Amino acid sequence: MTSVHTDHHDHDHDHAAIEQVDRPGYYEVMETAIRELLIAKGLISAGDIRHQIEVLDSRSPALGAAVVARAWTDPDFKRRLLADGRKGCEELGISFYDDTQLIVLENTSEVHNLIVCTLCSCYPRPVLGLPPDWYKLKPYRARAVSEPRKVLAEFGTHLPDDVEIRVSDSTAAVRYLVLPLRPEGTDDWSPDELAAIVTRDAMIGVIPVTIGGEAA
Amino acid sequence: MATQDFVSRLPNDIGGFEAGSVARVEHVLEPWEKRCHALADVLDFKKIINTEEKRKGVEALGETLIGKLPYYERWIVAFANILFTKELLSPTELAEKMAEVEARFPVESGQGG
């Protein structure tokens, strides 16, 4: 996406028009002022912020997709990943820049997992990057835990009634990642080919992985 | 909703409440939003404001403001309040710095957000 303002206007505040990008809004001014004051006081440095922006930019669902593809093709790795999600990811060179644990939840033909953060927006950022807006907004947070089948249906996902849906509510310290079901007909696929069909939304658990699905 | 729900639940605690359908909205972060996110992470690493303090700081804004402010706007206002409480910044300092930042931009280019 190249446009700054596109489709996230679900909130009811007024905006400066897009052509006024050179004049910062009130909250952007506040961000700049707080950052500069903290730097002047020596509490943080400009380099800290620059470095963390680079870290954020280095994270995307492609990392999670590589973890999933490896788990699908390497049973020993999958065992280790399910035992300790963070260590499993670190084994693949994915560093955890925050102090969070990761629990990987395996989907099977009997159990489908869905992740949410009802309180706010906790999310497995080291392996998926930043969450989409809908993950942070009230409808998903409020309803995922009480009517997950209806929520899944809104994503076009219809599970048989005999599939149990487990919803995991993230916290500041513990984050979750869904290990989706590997689609049938992919037995001879390489890990790279498999990773290419694993999407962010499948690792949140709102859709399955399908052949012909978009890249993560 | 029964008043007891408000007694037992703080504004962020909305799991299980009724709400509308999920609109699959998303946007690429604006530069200041990304800086705000990086600031949050750095404040956490430096043990100045941790994730839980941030969440509680947002909650302390109250339901009305939480409902009106977008995500990173809530964060930056919460950071200001927490930094005041910790006496790492004063409201006067912040107001003066914000005026200084504002003054870097010519007024005629728009009325701001």
- Sequence stretches where pLDDT stays below 50 over 5 or more residues of chain B: none
- Indicate the radius of gyration of chain B in whole angstroms: 17 Å
Strand content of chain A: 5-15%
**Per CATH, which architecture of the domain at 30-104 in chain B?**
Orthogonal Bundle
Termini gap of chain B: 34 Å
Strand arrangement in the largest pleated sheet of chain A: 1-4
Instruction: Profile the largest sheet of chain B.
Output: none
Q: Biggest interface between protein chains, with counts per chain? A: A-B, 71 and 65 residues
Average pLDDT for all residues of chain B: 90
User: What structural class is derived from the secondary structure elements of chain A?
Assistant: alpha/beta
Silhouette of chain B: globular
Written as H for each helix and E for each strand, in order along the chain, the element string of chain B is: HHHHHH
Separation of the first and last Cα atoms of chain A: 15 Å
Question: What is the β-strand count of chain B?
Answer: 0
User: In CATH terms, what is the architecture of the largest domain in chain A?
Assistant: Alpha-Beta Complex
**Quaternary state, please?**
heterodimer
Beta-strand residue fraction of chain B: under 5%
User: What is the helix fraction of residues of chain A, given as a range?
Assistant: 40-55%
Helix content estimate of chain B: 55-70%
Largest sheet of chain A: 2 strands, parallel
Can you tell me the CATH class of the domain at 30-104 in chain B?
Answer: Mainly Alpha
